Give the backbone structure.
Amino acid sequence: MSKICTIIGARPQFIKAGPLSVALREKFVEIMIHTGQHYDSGMSQRFFDELHLPEPDYNLGVGSGSHGAQTAAMLKLLEEVYVKEKPDAVIVYGDTNSTLAGALAAVKLHIPVAHVEAGLRSFNREMPEEINRLLTDHISRWLFTPSETSKKNLKLEGITDNVHIVGDIMLDSVLKYSEKAEKNSSIMLDLDIEKNEFYLATIHRAENTDDKIRLKTIFQVFSDLDKKVILPLHPRTKNRMEEYSLKVSDNIKIIEPAGYLDMLHLMQCSKSVLTDSGGIQKEAYYLGTPCITLRKETEWTETVDAGWNTVTNGDKSIILSVAERSDEIRLLPHPDLYGNGNSAAEIVNILSSEIS
Ligand code: UD1
């Protein structure tokens, strides 16, 4: 059997690797490599347990650091593992520093790379993620994109070979786990909240967290919403709030980072979601919950075109009016924007026909 190394490191990658790992192991030997970018139990191990992910064969324990230091440490250690394991291909997901390091270390050793979630663009090169995905796309052999738009983005950059529209791998996970989340999660009881009587918010992007005034303004808008805001706090945001001595009003309930099932259930039950995450914009859509994206732009433009997602750079009147229209938005058509939840099988079919 041919051997494939899967590179994961940050929370969304554990969710994406879940369904692909199961399908991959039917045709290949998979070596799972965790860079250690996320290391807190609530950001990492909890997802392995909930998604029944195999324990990583390697955990490189790279941890936090500046972009250069973190990526460089991963590159060095990944190269050593690749040299030892001699994989036939490497799979990377999304747009984190682990993605770029996994791809770059591989191509330098002439190991072909498969990029899952290829072709996404915000067209904002100040975002570290935009640089990571651009570079990864340009050095990958297989580009697995979620939509026609992402395929077009690649074409505009001259990438046309081996581009496959396979839908969104996160939908595979949502379909597999949403019922379980509804049945098994006790988060609503634990937090003593009722369906449709709260908003769910997440904030972690550097552009929002690393600017004190901006973070304060976002929290002010959350305070002005008509219902309570549940805010699972990302460690980056927590650190910044401590640095800025930022306190929040009673309308915001801060909780620990939520696990996958609890997060799905909170999305299922919230009136609207407010977020700067990429993954949550799509998950909210799949679960039929309107979303407000607190950024200048989004890569997931189809959700905006469909009317379910509103992008605003923190404008209070827009946020309040969209939040108010949540029931109306739920009546909009809800087409399959990113496939039908069969991405893992499609990716494995393509890889197994090309790697012998
Ligand atoms: C990373 C990704 C981002 C992704 C996000 C998902 C990059 C450039 N960014 O951002 O695209 O959306 O993951 O969460 O790769 N920290 C902890 N414990 C942890 C992990 C992080 O305390 O387990 C703290 C550290 O102080 C660290 C900070 O959070 O410095 C930021 O972590 P890092 O992995 O660098 O980036 P994220 O903000 O999580």
In short: The chain has a mean pLDDT of 97. The two ends are 8 Å apart (CA to CA). Residues 10-12, 37-40, 43, 64, 95-97, 128-129, 204, 235-236, 239 surround uridine-diphosphate-N-acetylglucosamine (CB under 6 Å). The chain is about 45% helix and 15% strand.
